[in-house]
């Protein structure tokens, strides 16, 4: 069986960017323009407020806490909610655009934040972002926060060095950070009403999800999936839609098309071969389904690829 989270992460074509630690003190506030799909950060020392578009209440992140800001939304980190914010680029970069090795804001030093940011394929991003709230809080007292914080701190150490294998280490650690954060959120119950991520932890619905992800070419039927979930057909259909937010047919269609989209971008296989790999014997039927889900034909998707708009700056 295939873990749905692992499969979705492969479809996202994740690109990680590691940020240098931010040192802050006194009264301070930094505004981020929100050009990253997810930013994951740990409060190594001190504390700060996190405010973000789409979240009604500010989050107080204390020492040892971790948090994620989800989606390309504007957000703000600050010592207090009244201090005017300076743009992140003014903190992280010199006027000539050179990246600062030790960004600082405010006066003195009582707070240190370390984190990593991630961007995804623009078409596949909703698969994950659609099941997460604007801000995810992983408090220090949770067991997962300690492991996540340790990985983020290790990332910060690697950023400041120039050891053998540094780039490979940063890539792998940033992937671990994202996986740890998502797993912590799901297993803490935060994803209980958040689509496939929460549903994948359900012993019965999760079994059906793993079966679908393991063999997308198979012509799955509701009776077969219900059997895997050890439920009646009617109960399974109802429970699946309630948990995932889509019918089994709609869900597997989306995953098939996003899997095909990745193959179109990253392989030289023919459209017919890719269609067969996700369960379509007819190239024309596949093309109709692909355009319905992805908004453009397989050929056009292959030519255009997946547009990105992240720019060169980490502090975004």
Can you give a write-up of this model?
43% of the residues lie in helices and 18% in strands. It is an alpha+beta fold and 316 residues long. The protein folds into two domains: 4-187, Jelly Rolls; 202-304, Arc Repressor Mutant, subunit A (Orthogonal Bundle), CATH 1.10.10.60. The strands form two sheets. Strands 1, 2, 4, 7, 10, 11 and 12 form a seven-stranded mixed β-sheet that branches. The protein has a five-stranded mixed β-sheet with strand order 6-5-8-3-9. It is globular, with a radius of gyration of 21 Å. The model is unreliable at 307-316 (pLDDT under 50).
Please give the oligomerization state of what you see: single chain
The percentage of residues in β strands lies in 15-25%
CATH fold topology of the largest domain: Jelly Rolls
Structural class based on helices, strands and sheet pairing: alpha+beta
Q: How many beta-strand elements?
A: 12
What is the C-alpha radius of gyration, as a whole number of Å? 21 Å
What is the CATH architecture descriptor of the largest domain? Answer: Sandwich
What are the secondary-structure elements, in order, as H or E?
HEEEEEEEEEHEEHEHHHHHHHHHH
Low-confidence stretches: 307-316
Biggest sheet statistics? 7 strands, mixed
Mean pLDDT: 88
Which bin fits the share of residues in helices?
Answer: 40-55%
The CATH superfamily of the largest domain is Regulatory protein AraC
Number of helices: 13
Number of domains: 2
| End-to-end C-alpha gap | 38 Å
CATH class of the largest domain: Mainly Beta
